[in-house]
Amino acid sequence: MRQKKAISDAVIERLPLYYRDLLLLQDAGIDIISSEKLGERLGITPEQIRKDLTCFGAFGKKGVGYYVSELCQQIVEIIGLQQHWKVGIAGIGHLGWALANYKTFGRLGFRTTGLFDVDHRIIGQNVGGVVVTPIVEMREVIQSEGIQIGIITTPAAVAQQVADQMVEAGIKGILSFAPLRLSVPDHIFVFREDLSIGLSRISYYLTNKPQGQET
Amino acid sequence: MRQKKAISDAVIERLPLYYRDLLLLQDAGIDIISSEKLGERLGITPEQIRKDLTCFGAFGKKGVGYYVSELCQQIVEIIGLQQHWKVGIAGIGHLGWALANYKTFGRLGFRTTGLFDVDHRIIGQNVGGVVVTPIVEMREVIQSEGIQIGIITTPAAVAQQVADQMVEAGIKGILSFAPLRLSVPDHIFVFREDLSIGLSRISYYLTNKPQGQET
DNA sequence: TAGATTGTTAATCGATTAACAATC
DNA sequence: TAGATTGTTAATCGATTAACAATC
Predict the structure, then answer these.
(1) What family does the database annotate (chains A, B) (predicted)?
(2) B123 and B70 housed in the same domain
(3) Measured between alpha carbons, how far is A155 from A133 in angstroms, rounded to an integer?
(4) pLDDT digits (tens, 9 = 90+) for A114-166
(5) pTM (2 decimals)?
(6) Which of A33, A150, B133, B147 could hold A171 in an S-S bridge, CB 3.0 to 4.6 Å?
């Protein structure tokens, strides 16, 4: 799976879509799928799918299609999901709570093993099988649990501080829902998930385009 | 503000980022900002910012920069936020609850005026100032309130059904958090917000790149 | 074999970056 | 005026689409 050129972000974002749909196909007992059919299901052109996959190797059979379970396994390895990343969530408001119970995370192999908050009404509660820990003990839990990925759902005002603490505790990647740019050392991956962009896009298209459709 | 060519989605996604930062600048009492400085704050190149803005007009002053409040107002009109869209949320689990209380939505001018669920333990509760209505009354509320945008945070299994009902009630745009492709008539805008893609990307980069950084 | 579908190469399209003239 | 910064045009870069030979 050694690729020469850097893979574009657009490709990386489509891989989980392929993977999730392949899981559904597997559940439905379908063994083989063509790029044509898969594309129909996902609203992606078959050419795009084939191009994406060949970034990593040749997983299909000409004249046949792709073996679902085999392709699944390949994508798991490409994304790196076989190792069941451990995840910690800081800020157990409703959003953090929702994420702690988000089934799709589990299905992708992510294990939430640390929940952190400052609110004493929340600390000690069992959320999706994990007890909420005071955020002052976050470092300790991250290290003892071996948590590698942190999710930040705290208020924006404290997000940077929480990120600093995560980095100090040895977290390697951060997914932040705080609407601001976090500064972290170069070797840490930070992705921001911005819940308000979707609504803004809808506003734009409703305002400016006579009509249209997108997925 | 009539533009000749279709504006790319990439531009549309950056506009809300500009807007939010301009609001912060305004709060801080800063009157003028250059593309250089704004770019620094957002991690976007100044050329990119200027290029994006000139899709819609010439809002800056050469040799000076952009007047913050003026540019704010222009972007509001470009995105179409001046009209204070009314939003309804179907599925008041923790995610729906979180969105109903999400401050940034309000700051962007979105007004949540309808909350819908099937669970009798949730129906009747006051969430962020709005009382949760039985989803069977959704159509009625959407029409009486004049709700134009729907957010779907229900389980995936019922998302399509909810979308159908929203469309039937006259909703124009839908933001869906359900991890599946919704089918709707051509004149309805649907955007999917996929919470698990961020984690998958982090997994990919942690697995495949020696080190790196992204915002 | 004949039909189907991949993987790959080439062509197109679009977005970002660079450069600079215009002008405040 | 001199310095700064925009808006615009040109150059580059990258991603998607199209076409088709390879082959199951």
Answers:
(1) Belongs to the transcriptional regulatory Rex family.
(2) no
(3) 17
(4) 999 999 999 999 999 999 999 999 999 999 999 999 999 999 999 999 999 99
(5) 0.93
(6) A150
Question: Strands A149-152 and A130-134: what pairing?
Answer: unpaired
Q: What integer pLDDT is reported at residue B115 of this predicted model?
A: 98
* pLDDT, tens digit (0-9, with 9 covering 90-100), for A20-79: 999 999 999 999 999 999 999 999 999 999 999 999 999 999 999 999 999 999 999 999
What are the chain B neighbours of A42 within 8 Å (beta carbons)? 181
A191 CA from D16 C1′ (Å): 25
Domain boundary among the residues A78, A102, A133 is at: A78
**CB proximity B45–strand C (7 Å threshold):** yes
Same-domain check for residues A68 and A122: no
Find which nucleotide's C1' atom is closest to A58's CA. Answer: C7
The verdict on residue B206 lying in a domain is no
CB contacts < 8 A (A, B)? 209
Domain of residue B54: give its range.
9-81
Closest CA to A176 of A113, A104, A112, A95: A95
Burial of A111 (0-12, 13-18, 19+ CB in 10 A): middle
